[in-house]
Amino acid sequence: MSKAEKIYSFDKSMELFHRAARTIPGGIYGHFSPTITVPGSFPYYTAEAKGCRYLDVDGNEMIDYMCAFGPMVLGYRNKTVDSAAATQQALADCTTHPGVVMIELAERLVELIPTADWAFFGKNGGDMTTYAILAARAHTNRKKIVMVRGHYHGVAPWCTALGFGGIIPEDHYQIIQVDWNDLDEFEKVVAEHRGDIAGFIAQPYHHINFGDQIMPAAGYWKGIEQICRREGIVLILDDVRAGFRLSMKGSGDYFGFEPDLSCYCKAIANGYALSACVGRRELMNAASKVFFTGSFWTSQVPMAAALATLSELERTDAPGRMKETGTLLGDGLKELGRQYGLEVTFSGPPAIPFMRFTEDRDFYWQQIFCSEVTKRGSFFHPHHNWFISTAHEQEDIEETLNHAEAAIKVVKREI
Amino acid sequence: MSKAEKIYSFDKSMELFHRAARTIPGGIYGHFSPTITVPGSFPYYTAEAKGCRYLDVDGNEMIDYMCAFGPMVLGYRNKTVDSAAATQQALADCTTHPGVVMIELAERLVELIPTADWAFFGKNGGDMTTYAILAARAHTNRKKIVMVRGHYHGVAPWCTALGFGGIIPEDHYQIIQVDWNDLDEFEKVVAEHRGDIAGFIAQPYHHINFGDQIMPAAGYWKGIEQICRREGIVLILDDVRAGFRLSMKGSGDYFGFEPDLSCYCKAIANGYALSACVGRRELMNAASKVFFTGSFWTSQVPMAAALATLSELERTDAPGRMKETGTLLGDGLKELGRQYGLEVTFSGPPAIPFMRFTEDRDFYWQQIFCSEVTKRGSFFHPHHNWFISTAHEQEDIEETLNHAEAAIKVVKREI
């Protein structure tokens, strides 16, 4: 390590969190919740962000490996995107009628994604996954939706597990769950409910929490596609998390299959609120019968930002670049593991990676490691997949590997 | 009429709509859909907006009585709000952790709304109405939700009518509908399902489409409140449409009752995408058990915009001002009706009004009238309530009344 080590503290974050807990249920909610990480070892509030870094409220500078849980793909405050947004803002944003930019963006997605003949826009990823299951039901005139156990499709009751507040068994009456990568189970379910299944929805691979990311088995997606076609089941790809990080053509193209509907969100506009569902021609009529809208769904600024984001991603071969950067990070972490005798498993696509210690049975080492890395200036989430952006440069990765080396020494000492 | 009459045409709007229909299901969707108004008589796309006016893609200047279906409350491109948003944008928007602005906004709403002890934020109004019913179920450990027939709470399947694409009877298994203003029916339902009703959700008054707005009957809300308290039913106010247009303290305060949960959206940030649910202390624990989040839910720019919007609304006594402006419009329209022998019913609160011809049985006169007004430069929706903003000045209303006079002459001629 070249520099004297500085260990961050997060007193102001903690103090603000206690203040927040008085007027916000849980203080900070959902997947942003700080209670899912080690208290006192992670920042809770962002003051300023630029490129791949942010300053937290304690003034700590952090290299960010969460990228706002995905949306930031070109770096915070990307000039090209923010300037396209500002230009649009100076004309019109949320207005009584949509803007031409909505048509342009639909046409752009149709041009970009091989299975897109049309596009539809919302605000949340979950708006689009729900829209997709409604379109599948409208198209097939069937009720049942098959989803993969543990896949995340947002917070709508149909896809939220029983046990969370307010979810009732009735929410899942027409939902069937199957295991990831298990074609046999899907075949069995299809045989059992032949003619009743409207759609199959899944993420392109298993973005599991607290575990290695699980890629599709050889032949899995082609098998799913064949069964869906044979049975008239609408094949829905939830590409909210992986979209535009693996391929500009969508993760269907990346993994070699053709979804009927694909849902995008996170990376589509570099942090401006937008989501999209794209679909094949055959589904367009059914999709137009779904009543689905929201107060800000035709807002023009996020659409202008999306057009600029997509162009920048394409121009810079962003997926290729994030793969390289993620591989650099993964190789470095694995090498550190070898050096210090703590084998590292680096899983998932390098642009959306996750690491853990292979022999760490209960995520105890992981908790120590991630909090020690974070206290040195690189935010590693202990159990959620990470995200790489095109703003992460080689020097950032090297700096992070220094933080990681110091952290792994602490792990060695403590376990 | 002082000026030579100019009749707008909407050729470019029509042309763009046909282009859009190739890559967007329905061309323009939801409540923005142009197919619900008379083709050729209304603009479909906005090019630029400022104050209470916009330019459509044909270059027609329009005084806007839809205000983006509600969000625009201080005028398009309001300097104070946009500058607060830009200041925040230059620091951080959508980031890995929320900003302090989330706490400040929660505290602001708690200070403003008498029944708010806490606040929670999302993107769509429908995010918040769904969150509210989940919180009600979590709080009561009961399943059933009572809603009012025809009230609009967003596009989630639980509140969308059968017949729309993809909606299945299972979506409504635990939903009971009662008539607006019918306390007896509510009492009957409560007696029938005693101990099973988690929540009652309603808008503050009946924002009906294709009809006069129906205000709460004397004693209705107090009666609802009493029954809910007696039976342990969570009282949910969907204030998404009326919020901050009638009173800065929320429509519960305005109509003299105390909701347990209130949902806000539209006017809260003058067009920046944000929604909020506020609630009483007793509900906070249950609310924290609801798993609810989204990719852009902690974005800081809309929250900064909301703080600025609320201050501006308060500083300018916006609800008082919009009431005056709406009354001016309503009085003018009623006077025109008298003058031309076509009685006008002006219903709803003046800030969120609706007019129709009292003797117009099938909205045929209304279609002619609204399209003729619109072709002259004031956008009147023929069957959805209108919205007033603080950017509407006396001269704008006078100009609109000139458009209305010309239009009413056409109605006289055609009927």
Report on the architecture of this protein.
The structure is a homodimer of 415-residue chains. By secondary structure, chain A is of the alpha/beta class. Chain A has two domains: 157 residues, Aspartate Aminotransferase, domain 1 (Alpha-Beta Complex); 237 residues, Type I PLP-dependent aspartate aminotransferase-like (Major domain) (Aspartate Aminotransferase, domain 2, 3-Layer(aba) Sandwich), CATH 3.40.640. Chain A contains twelve helices and 13 strands. In chain A, the strands form three sheets. In chain A, strands 4-10-9-8-7-5-6 form a seven-stranded mixed beta sheet, with helices on both faces. In chain A, strand 7, helix 6 and strand 8 form a beta-alpha-beta unit. In chain A, helix 2 packs antiparallel against helix 9 and helix 5 packs parallel to helix 6. At the A-B interface, helix 1, strand 1, helix 2, helix 3 and strand 4 of A face helix 1, strand 1, helix 2, helix 3 and strand 4 of B.
Query: How far apart are the first and last residues' alpha carbons of chain A, in Å?
Result: 22 Å
| Number of contiguous helices of chain A | 12
Spans of chain A with pLDDT under 50 lasting ≥5 residues? none
For the sheet with most strands of chain A, the description reads: 7 strands, mixed
Oligomer: homodimer
Structural topology:
The structure is a homodimer of 415-residue chains.
Chain A: H1 11-20, E1 46-50, E2 53-56, E3 61-64, H2 79-89, H3 100-112, E4 118-122, H4 125-140, E5 144-148, E6 175-178, H5 183-192, E7 197-202, H6 220-231, E8 234-238, H7 250-255, E9 261-264, E10 275-279, H8 284-288, H9 300-315, H10 318-339, E11 344-347, E12 354-357, H11 364-374, E13 378-379, H12 394-414
Parallel strand pairs in A: 3-13, 5-6, 5-7, 7-8, 8-9
Antiparallel strand pairs in A: 1-2, 2-3, 4-10, 9-10, 11-12
Helix pairs in contact in A: 2-9, 3-9, 5-6, 10-12, 11-12
